[in-house]
Structures
1.
Amino acid sequence: MSSIDLKSNTPEGPLKTKWSEYKGTMNLVAPNNKRRIEVIVVGTGLAGASAAATLGELGYNVKAFTFHDSPRRAHSIAAQGGINAAKNYQNDGDSTYRLFYDTIKGGDYRSRESNVYRLAEVSASIIDQCVAQGVPFAREYGGLLANRSFGGVQVSRTFYARGQTGQQLLIGAYQALSRQISTGQVKMYNRHEMLDLVKVDGKARGIITRNLLTGKLERHAAHCVVLATGGYGNVFYLSTNAMNSNVSAAWRSVRRGALMANPCFTQIHPTCIPVSGEYQSKLTLMSESLRNDGRVWVPKTEEDAIAIREGRKKGNDIAEEDRDYYLERRYPAFGNLVPRDVASRAAKTACDEGKGVSPTGLAVFLDFASAIERYGKAAAHSKNISNPSQKKILELGESVVSQKYGNLFEMYEKITGEDPYKNPMKIYPAVHYTMGGVWVDYNLQTNIPGLFALGEANFSDHGANRLGASALMQGLADGYFVIPYTIGQFLSKEIRTPMISDQTAEFDAAEKAVQDRIDNLMNIQGNQSVESFHRRLGKIMWEYCGMSRSAEGLKKGRQMIRDLRDEFYKDVFIPGSANEFNPELEKATKVADFLELGEVMMCDALDRNESCGGHFREEYQTPEGEALRNDADYTYVSAWEWNDKDPILHKEDLEFKNVELKTRSYK
Amino acid sequence: MKLKLKIWRQPSSEARGRLESYIVEANEHMSFLEMMDVLNEQLIAEKKEPVAFEHDCREGICGTCNMVINGRPHGPQRGTTTCQLHMRHFNDGDVITVEPWRAKAFPVIKDLVVDRSGFDRIIQAGGYISVNTGQAPDGNSIPIEKDTASEAFDAATCIGCGACVAACPNGSAMLFTSAKVAHLGKLPQGKVEHVARVKNMVDQMDEEGFGNCSNTGACEVECPKEISIENIAMLNRSYMASIFGANK
């Protein structure tokens, strides 16, 4: 087993000028040479669309791929809350350094300083770019851009477009991409799924795709390959990710030698609509912004909880003194606005104690009654209504809450059939985002030369926990403002490389490997559906590698996944044929990859004998049940090489020269 | 609840399709697509071909899902995509017909899956603002009236699902096209290219085989994002301007 030397390739110099000096001195590719270079971009969400558009504008020949029927469908579209940027428009003391510091601290000191600083530095340009593209951000009456606050920070730096910020940003990037498609600078391949990476002389030189309409395998060659294929939250089956989000492009690259970094760092979002039955296919997020006004509670006694579960009582029947507002009790300083990882664990603890309030026992209340009353009284006062009736107060209060959160309340009612203005919402944590991803250096290049990874697909910026409104920021930073420069460090050495041919032994072998894999899956003809395996995998992941983990559980979970994988390859049933539009076959290749990734996640969580951010190991906690980090032994990025018997761990040590490592406290 | 489904089955774009009947057990908490999942699991267990349908976010925002349910695009509930429609709006014993979008410009690929790539080409014809990355001035350099930004946003919420086309007796894409024209045309950044954009997008729309608008208003009624047909009025005015040279 050979050790891989993981060099971050961070340029020298002080943190504040590192990126600008590096940009000013890095190698360039002249316009006449750009015309002779081809770049493959896989994935067209925020990171991929912005990268493909910008590389096209620069004059590279881009081939962009998505498995969707249109680039506008990528899951970036579902982001609700907003996008952070250190503009300091509010004059509240925000700065690049403050955004950098909040992100490093929020990530529990497990991300790379230089990357995070650069992210904060380019954040302001993202807002400018998006405004110029016509993104209709929220505005003040004076016509200037509005901001709001998000969890874990003390400034107001989040830009937003109602509750649909991701949609508006993605449409902006999609339009920029469409413009390049119309000029012919980008060739767009819709309904094409990447099933393998092709390496020539150690460099990434192409991909094998399956045309999802015809089933035909195709070869695509280029001077380099950029992955912008999102996160792997669907390994848990139930998550807030879109149904088709998957790890396959990244995982196939790992199978070709790339490394999976910090795979166990997953974000469990505390406020999602709870699971209601076995048929459930996905979970829906209720924006973090709701915790500004909603109070989280469970009944103090198990009897009351059981009565609610059995439908004999409702939340409103529980008297004030019989309620446990556990976040306010445990974390008086931050109350209901503790970071996501802390809020999620506390909900689990309450339900583990038997206080859950849905029939499954897995839900807590998020209650707006006191906010409605408070806003109602304030509104009555400002309207000069003296002695308002309780009915009037509630009416006025509901109207204020509706202006703030109307679309979310409506979505909640559509899904659950319950009116959240009258009864407290029921919520429970759900998998939402994956901080881990393909290992990349400062240039966003993986350990395979010519293979890059952007956005949620890489690991680099969020450490062990991501702050709200930072995913959109990272996707667009990588695509618009980082990769267009850093890709030149690789491509400037390739200007003498002619167009890559796809008629070579390497492409032959890769295509054959994909064909064999598909034939193998189709030939199993067992008795269980792909979906049923995915569901079982999700249950194992959630039970043993979810909100809290233990060495014993992780070992057991790992074995269960290996057994499930064996069963999958013996008994999965895929209807239809490989030479047609076949969604079940698409699902099967994805689930097969999740069955390997899941094992590596277990290994990673087992290796990390500490609790940090979204990774909570039961053995490592304070007497009060808080996370216990171990900086002496675990201040590193774990980067896993795939191996069927035992995945191999490589490490990149993290150095903190500009911030002091502290214990996060929200008490 | 026990339901009888009559679903459009069509093996490929060339093959003839027909409605086939299925019985499925559902419960009121399921979404419509989860009910379809149950049916497909049932078909797979019987080693039969599952019903092909498209879906992704299941939160009503990606625009992928597209079913005509009992004759209405996205079903009976106003302002709701198929994925956000829940079975509590149906009754035990109901017969539900499920068909794909039907329009000349949206050919069927398989069962309920259609080809909507015409929408992408309409956007490529001019549904953007020509600004390269890095050229942008400061975000606050051009103040935009709050109401104007809000109107642009209302048009920009279009999810590109195609329900407007499916609802229209002429198979017209006017609501879709006008929503993009209005989104960009209302903002100062988008005004520069407005007239040329309108002309190019409308030409592409015709090229794709979408029909003409005859003001039936069905598109607005069925739009899951409740986009207003006022946008079509704006498009028509601008299109006239692009032909006769006013506003130039």
2.
Amino acid sequence: MPAGPQVIPMADGTKSGSWWVPARFAVCLVLLCLYVRYRVEPHIGFPTHPGFPNFYTNTAFLREFVSYPGGLATYVSGFLLQACSWAWGGPLVITAIVGLICWCTDVLIVAMGGSRVRGLAFVPAIVLIPSINAVFGQLALFVTLLAALLGLVFYLGLAAGGEGRRIAVFAAVGALLYYVAGGAFLFFGLLAALFELFTKPRRLPALVCLLSLEAVPYVAATYLFTVSLADAYAEGLPLPGRATMGPVYWVAACYGFLLALTLGLGLWGLAAARKGRPAERKGGRATRRRRDRPLVGSLALLVLGVLAALATFDANAHRVIRVDYFTWREDWEGVLREARGLPPQYYTEVVNQHVNLALYETGRLGDEMFAYPQRPTGLMLDSDLGRTVGEQTAKMGLRTDLWFQLGDLDLRLGLANESEHEAHEALAMHGPHPEVLKRLALVNLAKGQPDAARVFLNALRYSPLHRTRTEAVLRRMATDPYLRDDAFLNRVRSAMLTRDHPFPHNALDQRCLGLLQDHPQNRMAFEYLMAWYLLNRDLAAFARQLPRLKTVGYRTMPCHYQQAVLLYEKETTRASDRAGYSISPDVLQEFADFIQALQATDSDAAALAERFGDTYLFYYVFGITGAMVQP
Amino acid sequence: MRDRWVVLSLAVAAVLALAIAAPVGVRILRWRELGRVLHAPRVKPSRPPRISPDYTGLVIPPNIAPLNFAVLERGSRYCVNLRWMPRPSAGFIDVAGRAEIGIMSDSPAVRFPLRRWRALLREAQLYPSPMLTIDVAVRDDEGKWHRYAPIDLEVAEEPIDPYLVNRIIRPLYNYWTNIEIRQRCLESFEERTVVHNRATANACLNCHSFRQNHTDRMTLGVRSGRVGSATVMVRDGRAEKIGTKFGYTAWHPSGLVAAYSVNEVRQFFHTAGGEVRDVVDLDSGLAYYDLRTQTAKTAPAINAEDRLETYPTWSPDGKWLYFCSAAFPWQNRHKLPPDNYDRCRYDLRRVSYDVASDRWGEAETVPSSAELGKSLLLPRISPDGRFLLFCACDYGCFPIYQPNSDLYMLDLKTGRYSRLDISSPRSESWHSWSSNSCWIAFSSKRRDGLFTRTYLAYVDPSGRVHKPFVVPQEDPTFYDSCLDTYTVPELIAEPVPVRSQRLVNVIASPQEVKVESPVTFGAPPTSGATASDSPWMPGRR
């Protein structure tokens, strides 16, 4: 049975152990840091996904977090994760947090008398790797876990002496921890109780620890804070349905591991005591054994870590995030590069929307859109939430971050009010994320509402990462409130609806027609309208809009339009109004070849995909693009 | 050894003396600087400084919290001196030794110390109709001071009710997360959460209502998938849950009856124009909850088949129920937006009621929408029964989404009404009276057109409403970056008597008073509307 807490961080007390443990620790952390930097790349998800907690420096923002238990941990995570805006910042912070979790685990192992199994201190890092891979929304949970473990380390360090002192220390650390990290206190209390039960045992402090698990959140919810009883217990814990994105079970597994470790070490100590073998002797033997094979254990852990990283890193999901990131940066070639070859299950409506936007912005929508997978809903995301509560809940679950991705396209098209609507939904769902505030400021500026825009910009000014740029904008607004010389705003203004049109939900064609009614030269509305007709294979409607080509100012008719014209004319056996545009000989030849090949292959999509898969002809016949054909 | 003690004692004494003298010295220097600054030449042409919030030319309550403001003039140092003086018309020339507050700062944000502000106002109140004068001087980059024309504020004799209860929420579309009913002490900056939906499974918390500015009777609407639709009712410090949701609620002065609306609210969106959101009541009617029998009832006079009724309010004597009423301008109650929604205009109506016999009279139109060509909404009668304050907007039932919504005052003695000059080109709505009928609180979007803030204004005995001012905050730049809207401002004479935790428990509790709603509508919309039009779904926390 080990005697009392032994806080011996990162040293075995043996000659080789004195350098080996810290060295192993450092190597692991360096590897983790490099992995996060070059593989996970948190900086690409940081600006484009709302899972990262927001952080502002004003007191009004802080006030939101100090009013409930666990709020401060979220606030601190928000602060720490601002580092993710730099390529190395996020990896360093994540590594530091995980490193501290491992160090606390090591302290716990030593305190529980498990010096011979100190290698297990690295297990939390391995367990957390899958969670690091799906970086969104999980990091706040790391901070609460770390807070609980740091609380435990403090307790182990300070709670020497009699039972009264131990209870007093537990009460002080526990109360503070509960306020800072909310439900993580339960974990701290449980570990402290196990420690007290197994190490001495001290039944009274253990009982106090256990009773406090029930009492502290109850008292907090009933008398101190405006929180529900459920939240008083669960805030900050990795439970499903809490305020995180993505599955939380890996963080939950880490909690489980630490609990099992404490329990296991305690039982092991008890068993050792029953057999009459003092733990120190066992520990000494273990040290000798480990000294013999120190590298083997470390390599085993390393292999486990690598396996965890390889097995749980979803490279395609990562590419999807890169698509979002490049869209945010307006790196259109980057968007198309990352989207190319994405497996169908990853080629979501959001990716589809980003690809089409990239094609439009590079002037290739009418020529290349069918070179990528296309769905009729992929031009603009479906904003219909459904009618029943079940439908709404399901869609909301799917769309948790979609509100965040919506809005930019609407604004570019000229649907300023819809963009404003979507940005406000994102504000309600995700809080004042800087990107949401930026969009709201932009929309209000475009709509000629600089006073409202100023509120969003003033709020954004408190973001440490956006202060300088926002202040520059506000300075510009002092002399030019409407920012009349801003190219993007002028583009939006020249496209914006000027009349109220009662559009049904998701009727992109009607939106585009409304936009063209108000601004006939809105090229983007025209291309999206034509793309809509092409995707829905409505060639009659498509042909009716061809005369607009002149108004919008095309020199030549885009390739897909030419193919559609040929199809339409073949189907209806009458000439369409091509508005003076001609069909290129290449397209004519391709059309003839396609018809021939279609007959020759008996309409076999797989056989035609390689040669004609990127044409509208193929899409029109098969309803999918060549990129969607399963080999 | 002894010498060492002497040296040590002297050193301690010197440190103490310095600690005491230094602040005094600093203060003396500051006062000297202040004195010098206040005699600096005035800017030409003489004008008051630009300040935010705009607190110039106000009539303020004698019990208001410090009116902290930010000086918008560019400078490197700011000097502000606040003093009070009797109004010349009151017959006093000057009073020696008046309290003053002098502030010298490098920051343009001016914060008056609460205790000294209160002392100054207390002293000023000893004299009739005192004025507050704020002198502002700004030092430019070259070190030259510029003094502005003073800002004069009139201090009214009548205090404002010391508490204000607001609903605080982000600009609301379909989703919500944080909704808070918050009580603000207007005499200081103290705030208290009455209830926060973080603690109520993210429920929607709507309009709170009090009996004649008192908190012995209070209701609060709750709507949530998890806790259902209900009303929390506070009676004499005890809270209970009523198993039906009251819409806009008005307490009878006796406290025995609460009239409320039942609304089939739908939201839709405009694709162009400043305000995106719009709301219609596809159907609505009034009902009342009788506390004596714990039953909900209605009457034909307040729930006509062919009309929409909403926004009830009682006359202070309890003999009349005023409300808004419109004829259905649409045939199809399932279409969204309904046909002619922009021609739906509400009249102000009233109906007599005898609380003892529970008997209703015939409804009569007070001013009609046809007279003004506008929709008349949100009637609220001053506690002395003299004035009726209401909103008028181009159409519909939701003035907060109508930029053209203005405040109107109806003199119940003469029957005449007029638009209040204090109305801005942006939306005004949700007003309430102070219990002494001398102050109103109302919501306005006048600052930026998007965020609703609460404004206070003095109503003199003739019914003239003086320049409104935004509820002061400790940080004078608070509203510049505040993303919350402050709606439904209700002035109350005493704080809400129930703790927040108690209200949360009541909301979460399965125990409720079962009430059958006496107002029923036709079948819910089956076509045209989608969930996106359904008003206000809970967001994800």
3.
Amino acid sequence: MNTNNWSRRKFTKAVISAQALLASGVLALPLACAESNKTESDTPLDKLQQETLKFAMDEIIPANDKMPSASETGSVNYVLNILEELPDLSPLFISLTDKIEDQSLQLSGSAFSKLNSERRIAVLTTIEQTEPGLFKVLKDFTYESYYTNDSVHKLISYEPHPTGTTGPEMEPFDEQLLDRVKNIPAMYTKI
Amino acid sequence: MNNDDIDVLVIGAGAAGAVVSWSLTEKGAKVVCLEQGGWVDPLSFPSLKPDYETHLTREGDFNLSPNLRNRKEDYPVTTDGENPPFIMMFNAVGGSTIHWQGIFPRFHPSDFKVKTLDGVADDWPISYWDLEPYYEFNDKMIGVSGLNGDPANPPRTKRPTPPLPLGKMGNTLVKGFEKLGWHWWVNDHGIISKQYKDRAACMLHGKCMFGCPMGAKATTDRTYWPLAIEKGAEIRTWSRVKEITVDNTGKAKGAIYFDKEGNIQEIKAKVVVVCCNGIGTPRLLLNSKSNLFPDGLGNGNGLVGKNFMVHPTHFINGIFEEAMDGHIGPMGSPLFSQEFYETDESRGFKRGYMLLGERTFGPLFQAQDIPWGKNHHAEFGKIFPHQIGLTVVADDLPEETNMVTLDDKEVDSNGISAAKATYSLSENSKQMLNHAVEKSTEVLMAAGAKEVIVPPATNLAHLMGTARMGTSEKNSVVDKNNKVHGIPNLYVVDGSSFTTGAGVNPTSTIMALALRAADKIWENAVHGKS
């Protein structure tokens, strides 16, 4: 984004190179958060925390006969990548998984991953009501991972058309559509 | 440029600042512009990335709100009142045109004379016809796309580039408007549909609010600024103005600002022009206190910051059985209706509103209100891709109780007091929004919607009215030429100088007003004084 040493001259050069690249229609930058191959020791969430997150994300967006669940599209890895980029968020996710496990023990006396779906939903519903801010972190990042995922885009027939690729085909405006309106007398107040 | 040679100091490099700087430089003035942000690298725009939508939903460097973006060059804006607005602005060369959708309607002649016509608010001291040549000139400068001949507006010349496409969602809305026999027209846009000057035509990617690296969208860093700099204007980026200085006779002397390193600098000029828009301008005037002006500059009558207007807004969605393409194509609005724009007393409110056919963002944005859990996919499948949006932009009449003040706790990264925006909807606005919901629902159903979703009203936060232009020193901050009352060489040129807000997007009027003000500054304060 803006850098302190960005100058008018650099800006002009960037405009020229951007137009050249964009005109070629091939420039599409990669997803900010690609697949992760991190080992457990590299990550800010341990194996149990990742498992809690996986089961929670799969209750937020579960699978059905046509669509995969959140974790099947790599939602946990998505979060791990974000935590790598934004380590300040790690305590938030640790609080979230801790809260889920605490609530699970309190409601059902068992680890979240061992509960059936109905009980997991009850745990998450309680957190949604008692800790809405924390729950929003879970929901927002689950949705974000899911609806920026290329495989999900294909399943819902969404073509993102990022700038730099060829744009969508659209019919030019048909002026005949305005034939009736063109004959309306002036509607504005003349003053 | 040597600090002793400066004719005009412009503060703010957005829509108005760019226009004023270009126009005065073109005439021969020596102009320096101070901008608290920098140049934005077009290859850094989120629009280039498939996950662009995360930049809208997540806090971070391209969020629409300075409070969620939190960059060094942003300043906090706290909010209060019954209907606190969602504040949108961008601090960089180009200002909020970097984010802006490029929707480019004009005010109506009646918008300038609401007191005379409807007995509400105040008349502007100028008319539509005073601005009309400047609207025309600006349209040609930036290459507006659209179609002339709209019966809801005064005649205008052939648009420099043809209209942008309607798409399936636009054509579906047309069916609704035609069925009801209501007015509609294809929108003017500050987005070129054909190559224009040295800018490439829009390729319809639809990521306009996430930055347009093509330059098809008329951001002022790609339109006016290159021309101004070529003619000799100097822009000092990363320069945040702390206060405007005055001499012992009460004339503006220049400004004190923080440079990139955070060092205090002083600059002097014969004329000072403030172009920081509806929040930044009153914030700066109120922060510019001195023995001569203990309540801030131009604030002898206490009106700086008062009469804050934002455009009450509704985003209404029709759900259709058929698949729609509302997420495809330029993010601006393909068409609009001004069927209910002028006052009709039988509706129970004064003035009126515009309906904008509104394209939507992608699936992440559309999923935001979909419930989580086992019904998630079924609910998502009902709305995606089956939505058509209609946005209501309601005329916002000025109220002294809606205001921008200095926040007594928050400061920016240089320690300067932040702004606080207080806003509550008037009864007139509430009645207008209720009417607009009813009419939007009617047209969406006429177009074939099986369901219409009406979320709570919001406030679009176009930022206007806080240093208003007026017919007398008692009812305003600036005169008909944008000069601050009582200070012979200080001008305010931006949305804050609007007397009323009208029911349309403000940028074309901000730019036309800036072109006119530059002429007046040249005639009265620069050339006329040389």
